[in-house]
Amino acid sequence: MPCAITSGITRDCRDNAGGIEYAYILDATGSMINVTEAAGVVSAFDIGGTAVTALDDMYLFDQVSQVANMTESGTFSTENGTVFYSNVLNLVFNKIEATKLQQLKLLAQNAKLCVVVKDNNGKFWMVGNERGCTCTASTVETGTAFGDRNGISIEFTGLAPEPMYEVTVPETTP
Fold first, then answer.
1. Rounded to an integer, what distance in angstroms lies between the CA atom of residue 44 and that of residue 168?
2. Is residue 6 part of a domain?
3. Could you point out which of 4, 77, 146, 147 has its C-alpha 20 to 30 Å from the C-alpha of 86?
4. Beta strands in 39-150 (DSSP E)
5. Closest CA to 114 of 131, 138, 102
6. Strand, helix or coil at 129?
7. Number of Cβ within a 10 Å radius of residue 56
8. Closest Cα partner for 21 from 67, 54, 56, 52?
9. Element (H, E) at 108
10. What per-residue confidence (pLDDT) applies to 174?
11. Domain-embedded: residue 14
12. What is the span of the domain harbouring residue 143?
């Protein structure tokens, strides 16, 4: 059965902004991430049976303007008949500090993370959807000149058979 195209895509107004404002993260190791999803939009989700009723139930990782980003790449194989999507999220934290390095270590040790990011358009996106994601790289750098970054970068990667989900679970305090 052919896959029916259901609509076209029109050109939008130029009212868009790039970048990530912040991320919410929870450990989901050993747990299922269950989502209530319709047409790519998640209205509710739970981790291991515990409902996330507001994004504030997760840990906030705030970002400096214009440093964090997320990309999604689709991989489509004609030969194998497969389609999957890879999300890569890069978060950046200024100033090297022991407490930040310890959090980086804990994030990296988790086998599965539930991550929801808020972009600079006010939309929330789930990284890796219900399969979650893992830390795949990090960099700690002192910089060279006084004006260089002294800080930490961390990369999260998630794989999913569907494009990233938009999340409409409420946020009570940004």
1. 8
2. no
3. 4
4. 41-47, 50-52, 59-62, 69-77, 82-94, 113-119, 124-127, 134-141
5. 131
6. helix
7. 15
8. 67
9. helix 98-109
10. 57
11. no
12. 20-167
- Please indicate, yes or no, if residue 161 is contained in any of the structural domains: yes
Q: What is the CATH number of the domain that holds 36?
A: 2.30.110
Q: What is the chain's pLDDT, residue by residue, as a tens digit (174 residues)?
A: 578 888 887 877 777 888 999 999 999 999 999 999 999 999 999 999 999 999 988 999 999 999 999 999 999 999 999 999 999 999 999 999 999 999 999 999 999 999 999 999 999 999 999 999 999 999 999 999 999 999 999 999 999 999 999 999 988 765
Q: What are phi and psi of 144, to 5 degrees?
A: -115, -55
Judged by DSSP in three states, 99 sits in: helix
> Looking up tokens 């970054």, which residue turns up?
149
**Do 38 and 167 touch, CB atoms closer than 8 A?**
no
Measured CA to CA, the distance from residue 88 to residue 70 in angstroms comes to 5
Q: Which residue has the tokens 């989900």?
A: 165
The total number of structural domains in the chain stands at: 1
Give the C-alpha distances (Å, rounded to integers) separating 64 from 93, 96, 148. 7, 14, 15
Report the C-alpha gap between 85 and 169 in whole angstroms.
Answer: 22
The residue among 129, 87, 114 whose CA lies nearest residue 29 is 114
Alpha-carbon distance of 164 to 169, in angstroms, equals: 15
Spatial separation of the C-alpha atoms in residues 153 and 95, rounded to whole Å = 11
